[in-house]
Write a structure and sequence with these properties.
Number of strands: 8
Radius of gyration: 17 Å
Low-confidence stretches: none
Mean pLDDT: 96
CATH architecture of one domain: 3-Layer(aba) Sandwich
CATH topology of one domain: Rossmann fold
Bound molecules: adenosine-5'-diphosphate
Largest sheet: 5 strands, parallel
Order of helices and strands: EHEHHHEHEHEEEHHEH
Strand content: 5-15%
CATH superfamily of one domain: P-loop containing nucleotide triphosphate hydrolases
Distance between the termini: 7 Å
Helix content: 40-55%
CATH class of one domain: Alpha Beta
Oligomer: single chain
């Protein structure tokens, strides 16, 4: 079963994609994670994406589509995908639709994480990542056992460059302009499920699990 996680930056897509993947054997395909991996590895794609991401803008549809299609082809044996943060534009959604039809991969549902602007700003401002694994924390909501250190192997936690206050505001603006129209795009197709995402992680996770049990 394949799902899309749609929502503004900071809504909890990555956190809950990881939690659901652990429980139900999904393969999480997070566009942002794959782009950051390319930057770290110094690939051509990474070089093209680096400054765009730092400004809080979107990487071009063609680059992101090709990147995601490659990943899907490689991982096609997976039981189910969670597309996390992809698609983010109508152009990407149309390209994905064509690609999935060609590859005979059905889309079961699009989960729309619905969170208020104040919550998003607070979450992005307090987000920390493990420098090695990318595990997601929040300084208050989901803190590590020891401040600034990942629980898994004691690696330092880092702040994403695009989680600076000015860039956060730009990313929210970009979300409203380019990504929010996808809500109606998928609602018209009968695929959209709204999930209120302002609550704590345990309560949001409960709603997601209930939804998942209903649609699978
Ligand atoms: P967040 O978790 O805050 O939603 P992501 O990690 O998903 O952010 O994405 C980080 C950045 O990577 C985005 O701001 C954008 O620059 C780029 N990016 C991620 N996904 C896409 C996409 N589908 N299309 C274009 N750019 C993307
Ligand atoms: P997204 O992938 O949508 O950008 P993340 O999953 O990275 O969002 O979450 C953004 C920040 O908010 C992280 O610091 C994470 O620990 C925290 N967070 C995620 N979900 C919740 C929640 N339901 N309640 C409180 N904090 C959350």
């Amino acid at each position: 079963m394949n799902l899309i996680f749609l929502g503004p930056p900071g809504a909890g897509k990555g956190t809950h994609a990881k939690m659901l993947s652990e429980k139900y054997e999904f393969t999480q395909l997070a566009a942002g994670d794959i782009l950051r991996r390319n930057i770290k590895e110094g690939t051509k794609l990474g070089a093209l994406a680096k400054d765009v991401i730092a400004r809080g803008e979107l990487v071009s549809d063609d680059l992101v589509n090709d990147m995601m299609f490659e990943e899907i082809k490689v991982l096609k044996i997976a039981k189910g995908f969670i597309f996390d943060g992809y698609p983010r534009t109508i152009g990407q959604a149309e390209a994905l639709e064509k690609f999935l039809a060609k590859e005979n991969i059905p889309l079961a549902a699009v989960v729309n994480f619905d969170a208020s602007e104040a919550v998003l700003v607070d979450r992005l401002g307090g987000r920390r990542l493990c420098a090695v694994t990318g595990k997601i924390y929040h300084v208050r909501n989901m803190p590590p056992k020891k401040e600034g250190i990942c629980d898994c192997h004691g690696q330092p936690l880092v702040i994403r460059k695009d989680d600076e206050p000015a860039t956060i505001l730009n990313r929210l603006k970009v979300y409203h302009e380019s990504t929010k129209p996808l809500i109606e795009f998928y609602r018209k197709k009968g695929l959209l499920h709204d999930v209120p995402a302002d609550g704590d992680a345990a309560s949001v996770q409960k709603v997601l699990e209930k939804l998942f049990e209903k649609i699978r």
